[in-house]
Design a protein that fits this description.
The complex is a heterodimer of chains A (143) and B (117). Chain A has 143 residues and is of the alpha+beta class. Chain A is built from 3 helices and 5 strands, in the order βααββαββ. Classes of the chains: A alpha+beta (143), B alpha/beta (117). At the A-B interface, helix 2 and helix 3 of A face helix 2 and helix 3 of B.
Chain lengths: 143, 117
């Protein structure tokens, strides 16, 4: 079994920097031959999680940064994202699929992360999110 | 209207077909530009039948979904109609998970979306 690929980066609250790190993680997944579905899910979850950290966590404050820890191995991809915000309780986010919320524009990011990742976990303070994706069996999807 | 063009616009009879140029509709900046161009079709050009063609789109974020919802609400207020088409299975799953497949009028392809519009 190969040694997992690991890196840690600290970026400013800047969406272009966020995109650069996302691309770094995605190309690592592709190098490690994760399937298209895994890559799709990870790209979506990363976008939501890092943008949340920058916008809602750090409030776009350029003096605050986001730390991203990435570890990709044969079995799984793990990304841990920490912002410098006060944190939040994910339970406070209303269910976007409730009839009352269905036509409101916001509040779908966390739901999408949970749908596409194997595990999404927040720390107690709510300023660190862990995204874990186990490699799916059978890399060839039906479509 | 300020900002670069993010959609190809074509008129088919009284229907406007707007096709996304980008493969990824993720970042805020891009979504803002797309939103402005689409809102302009309703507010400035008074189009009341719009088909949004997703056939180029490979990735979509929740921020993009938010913009589409705002567009749909705007269109309803203007008593117009919005149809979506050409959504690939991965992306359709995003709509299904968030139950937005029940909010939007979704068709397999452009021809189907234009039929009877």
């Amino acid at each position: 079994m190969a040694t997992p690929e690991r890196f840690r980066e600290t970026i400013p609250s800047d969406l272009q920097e966020a995109e650069r790190v996302q691309e770094r993680i995605i190309s690592l997944l592709e190098t490690m031959e994760f399937g298209a579905r895994d890559v799709f899910g990870m790209r979506l979850a990363l976008e939501e999680a890092i943008v949340n950290a920058i916008k809602h966590g750090n409030g776009m404050d350029p003096s605050k940064s986001v730390e991203i820890l990435c570890e990709i191995g044969d079995e799984r991809a793990l990304v841990v994202i920490t912002d410098e915000g006060p944190g939040f309780d994910p339970k406070d986010i209303p269910d976007p699929t409730d009839d009352d919320n269905l036509e409101k524009p916001g509040g779908r990011g966390i739901m999408l992360m949970k749908a596409f990742m194997t595990r999404v976990e927040y720390n107690e303070r709510g300023n660190t999110v862990t995204l874990e994706k186990l490699r799916e069996n059978g890399e060839e999807s039906e479509d | 209207m300020a900002g670069e063009r993010r959609l190809d616009i074509e008129d088919v009879g009284d229907v406007t077909v707007a096709r996304f140029i980008d493969k990824k509709i993720l970042d805020e900046n891009n979504i803002q530009k797309i939103g402005n161009q689409l809102f302009g079709l309703i507010d400035e050009d008074a189009r009341r039948k719009i088909v949004l063609d997703f056939s180029n789109v490979e990735y979509l974020s929740s921020a993009a979904l938010g913009k589409l919802i705002t567009l749909n609400n705007k269109m309803k207020k203007a008593k117009g109609k919005l149809r979506l088409c050409g959504i690939r299975p991965d992306i359709y799953e995003v709509f299904a998970i968030t139950k937005l497949n029940t909010v939007f009028d979704i068709y397999d392809d452009r021809d189907q979306a234009l039929t009877g519009f």
